[in-house]
UniProtKB/TrEMBL annotation:
Pfam families: TctC. This is Tripartite tricarboxylate transporter substrate binding protein. InterPro entries: BUG, Bug_dom1. Coiled coil: none annotated. Belongs to the UPF0065 (bug) family.
Length: 327
């Protein structure tokens, strides 16, 4: 079985999620539909971002918070709680059990950490509210680097050390993706850890590492300015966005590895049905706004909103597929 198939975190996963959404018709359980109008989460609302400033998680959390402010007419402050590749923020979020005035900008690290580290939480510890979509990672290097493709990087790793930035900790998305490439191509990279995507980009720009993996929204400016160049997308199919459409995929280059990560929001565990309904209803209104469309386009995301119980079903499948890919 190929690494791409085993990982199960490929475009097919996104397709499965789309099917889920289509089957549900955007509907939700009765508990999510009732009680939202009468519920009030209070006036001191906070969006936790469990990663450092400047990366994709930070961009996601701040964009979603701004969009929810628009539809709820409430102020939502954003608080970065970085550390441990997201573990610090998620662990702190456990202590907010039952408090509907807090949300957290979540992504794949929530599932990664529970599968690979001894942490006191899993996605089941919290209340899934909304998945906004997913994106695929781009491998980038400085513009003057000798590498022209991801295959060149793999060949260089066979011949000697290639320093790669790994944001989000030793078990984060970058580490998993480089690990899958190592497994598929029988090579080893020299990993240099960073807390956020912003730090990883700064490291490759500063020549501290040779290669970085990054989300398109984090790096498109440097690609357009010519400071960085893209070698490949860790995906089976190319991006359709005009700015990214010319970047080949790993599969095109003979590397049988793909990966996509979701982004969304969760609430603390143990909140009331009315509180869950309030945030699910607000999220559904958010995805109908121009703010949502702008966030998707600006960050080159693949829109695929899922809410409440449908998001829960997605996470169940995502965890199973990710676990299979890590075996």
């Amino acid at each position: 079985m190929s690494v791409r198939r085993a990982a199960g975190i490929v475009a097919g996963l996104g397709a499965a999620a789309l099917t889920l959404g289509a089957c549900s018709g955007g509907s939700s359980s009765a508990e999510e539909e009732g009680g939202a109008a009468a519920f009030d989460p209070g006036d001191r609302l906070t969006m936790i971002v469990p990663m450092g400033p400047g990366g994709g998680s930070d961009l996601s959390g701040r964009s979603i918070a701004a969009g929810l402010e628009e539809v709820t007419e409430k102020t939502i402050s954003v608080e970065n709680q970085e550390g441990g590749g997201g573990a610090v923020g998620y662990a702190n979020f456990l202590g907010l059990e039952g408090d509907p005035s807090y949300l957290l900008a979540t992504e794949t690290a929530l599932v990664n950490l529970a599968l690979t580290e001894d942490v006191p939480f899993s996605w089941e510890s919290f209340t899934p509210i909304m998945k906004v979509g997913q994106d695929s990672t781009i491998m980038v290097v400085p513009q003057d680097a000798a590498y022209g493709t991801c295959t060149d990087v793999v060949d260089a790793a066979r011949a000697g050390d290639v320093k790669v930035s790994v944001s989000g900790g030793v078990t984060g998305n970058d580490a998993i993706q480089f690990g899958l490439i190592e497994k598929d191509q029988d090579v080893t990279f020299q990993r240099v850890p960073y807390e956020s995507g912003g730090e990883a980009i700064a490291a490759v720009l500063g020549g501290h590492v040779d290669v970085a993996l990054t989300n398109p929204g984090e790096v498109v400016g440097q690609l357009e300015s010519g400071d960085l160049k893209a070698l490949c997308v860790i995906a089976e199919e190319r991006y359709e966005y005009e700015e990214l459409a010319d970047i080949p995929t790993t599969v095109e280059q003979g590397i049988d590895v793909t990966f996509s990560q979701y982004r969304g929001i969760i609430a603390p565990g143990g909140i009331s049905d009315e509180a869950k309904a309030y945030w699910v209803d607000a999220s559904k209104k958010y995805v109908e706004t121009e703010s949502f469309k702008e966030y998707m386009a600006t960050n080159y995301m693949q829109a695929d909103p899922l809410f409440g119980d449908d998001f829960t079903s997605y996470l169940e499948q995502y965890e199973a597929d990710l676990a299979a890919g890590l075996e």
